[in-house]
Every structure is written in C-alpha cells, then in structure tokens.
Amino acid sequence: QLQLVESGGGLVQPGGSLRLSCAASGFTLGYYAIGWFRQAPGKEREEVSCMSSSGGSTYYVDSVKGRFTISRDNAKNTVYLQMNSLKPEDTATYYCAADSVDKPVQAMCTMQLFGSWGQGTQVTVSS
What we know:
By secondary structure, the chain is mainly β. The protein has one helix spanning 105-110, and strands spanning 3-7, 10-12, 18-25, 33-39, 46-51, 58-60, 68-73, 78-83, 92-99, 116-117, 121-125.
C-alpha cells in the first residue's frame, strides 16, 4: 500500500527555519515525481515546490523562491522541504505528494497532478 507520512512541522518564529520530511512506503520513491503543497485556513490548497522523478527539474512558487529547497533521498525513500526565512504567511498545513506520471514538473505542480497524498503537517509561523 502506497503511503506518504509528513513530519517536522511545528511552531517557529518569523525568520526561523524548519525542515519537513515525507517518508514514503509501499513504493520506490525514486521513480516518482514529488511535490509539496500547502493549505492555509480558509484558502485553497496551493503548490509550493515540485521535483521530477530524476531530480533534474524543480519548480518553486514565486513566494518561496530563494527561501525553500526541495530535495530527495532515494536511499531513504524520503522527500524533504527545507524552509528558511519563514514568514507568518507561510503558516499552513503542508502536504507532500507523489506520482509516477512523467509530465513537465511545472505543470504537475501548478495543476496539482499528483495521485498520492500524505495527511499533512502543520506549520505555524508566529512570534
């Protein structure tokens, strides 16, 4: 059974950092495109960052460029999202996603073309 489990969320002050992890089980993550998405209260889910199955292509939404970094460790079957210089507007539930379909990563991200999703981890940025 394909499963994604996020961890690493929490409360952090503005300007701080967090690293989210997404552990995959039931499938080999190295063959899948991966993504991070977030949903703030009262708002629609939005894309944050995505990476192709090869790791050669990445996409970031403009609001996180230069602050967030997506990465993957295929040996550990885990995806990461390093978040630096956090802002209150980054407060949301963060979800990881994976899909075996090979499409341009920007399209997969902006159209949220992912079939498998985790349950989410809460990130709160507040002083």
